[in-house]
Design a protein that fits this description.
The chain is of the alpha+beta class. The chain is built from one helix and eleven strands.
């Protein structure tokens, strides 16, 4: 009987020890900061943003995604219809809708207009 009690106590002791050790956390002392983003807000980025001013509002385009600035942070923003660029953002591909040609990049449609510009469109 004593052997069973000792074995049960040893089993219990090992279980408690393993449980305590399993909850130990390890801190990362040297985190790498590349891009910090929280729910559509960019706090910092190593990429250069293209600045576009349209109707008094400054927009910033990073990898074809449009943002506006609020309290030193970039916030995701739908591009305004009619805003013009001299190029289609990276990854743009030609699509035809309703017989009209558009360029689509990151879900945003652009149509080519006179003067070599591309205008944000809503087909």
């Amino acid at each position: 009987m004593k052997k069973r009690i000792i074995a049960a106590m040893a089993f219990f002791g090992i279980t408690v020890f393993n449980t305590v050790m399993a909850q130990e956390t390890v801190k990362n002392e040297n985190p790498v900061k590349k891009l910090v983003s929280t729910k559509g807000t960019i706090n910092s980025s190593h990429k250069k943003a293209l600045k576009v001013n349209y109707k008094g509002v400054e927009y910033y385009i990073i990898d074809g995604i449009w943002h506006t600035k609020f309290k030193n942070k970039l916030i995701l923003k739908q591009p305004p219809k009619g805003a013009r660029l001299t190029f289609v953002p990276e990854g743009g591909e030609m699509v035809t809708m309703g017989g009209k040609k558009y360029y689509k990049s990151n879900g945003i449609f652009y149509k080519k207009i006179k003067g070599g510009f591309y205008e944000v469109a809503r087909p």
